[in-house]
Design a protein that fits this description.
It is a single chain. The protein is mainly α. The chain folds into 2 domains: 7-58, Homeodomain-like (Arc Repressor Mutant, subunit A, Orthogonal Bundle), CATH 1.10.10; 62-168, Orthogonal Bundle (Tetracycline Repressor, domain 2). It has 11 helices and no strands. Helix 6 (79-91) crosses helix 10 (153-162) and helix 8 (102-117) crosses helix 9 (126-145). It is globular. It starts with 6 loop residues before the first helix and ends in a 24-residue tail after the last helix. Residues 171-192 are annotated as: Disordered. Residues 182-192 have a biased composition (Pro residues).
Length: 192
């Protein structure tokens, strides 16, 4: 048996690494796909083999955060896991504020709702429940990083975990067994 080809994973990691480096030095809306291609040192067609757009790269980059939020909404994340994710988001709050607004924020909410919905039993209100839980999680995050509702990451983690009540209160959309498998651990950082 042969080993799987590591090149696709390396290329994907190079694109995500380039995205992370670039987005920390310039505004997301000023970042072009050509910038990602140059920073990752790959060809245009190679980029498009892995990602259909700059927005798809963004969604892949924030997926660990969205997975933690989805697990919290389903009552399957630990307080420590959610707190660590919140500490990381707080460190990047300027970028997070921009991401949570406008079209990008709506796309993040759809992606988060999809992650929640994939773990719900199908029912007539599964989409409503997943969308409501995603909206609640992101609204709390938006208010917190905007300074409208000051609290510690630990306090916010408890509130985010309480969103599981939205899911469990739904009659026909109960969480499926099993937790969301993390793709990669959420970065940790010191408390703000």
């Amino acid at each position: 048996m042969g080993h799987p080809d590591p090149r696709p994973r390396r290329t994907r990691d190079a694109i995500l690494g380039a995205f992370t480096a670039l987005v920390l030095t310039r505004r997301y809306d000023a970042l072009r796909t050509a910038d990602l291609i140059a920073a990752a040192d790959i060809g245009r067609s190679t980029f498009y083999e892995h990602f259909p757009s700059k927005e798809a790269v963004l969604l892949a980059a924030v997926e660990p955060i969205l997975r933690t939020l989805a697990s919290a909404a389903l009552g399957r994340a630990s307080k420590a896991q959610v707190r660590a994710m919140l500490e990381h988001v707080w460190e990047q709050r300027g970028f997070a504020r921009m991401l949570l607004d406008g079209r990008t924020g709506a796309n993040l909410q759809r992606q988060l709702a999809a992650l929640i919905a994939e773990r719900l039993d199908t029912g007539t209100d599964a989409t409503m429940v997943a969308t409501a839980a995603a909206a609640a999680q992101l609204a709390m995050l938006r208010l917190w990083i905007g300074g409208a509702v000051p609290c510690t990451p630990a306090e916010l983690a408890l509130r985010m975990l309480a969103c599981a009540a939205l899911v469990s209160a739904s009659g026909s959309a109960s969480p499926r067994s099993g937790s969301l498998p993390p793709r990669s651990p959420a970065p940790t950082s010191p408390a703000p």
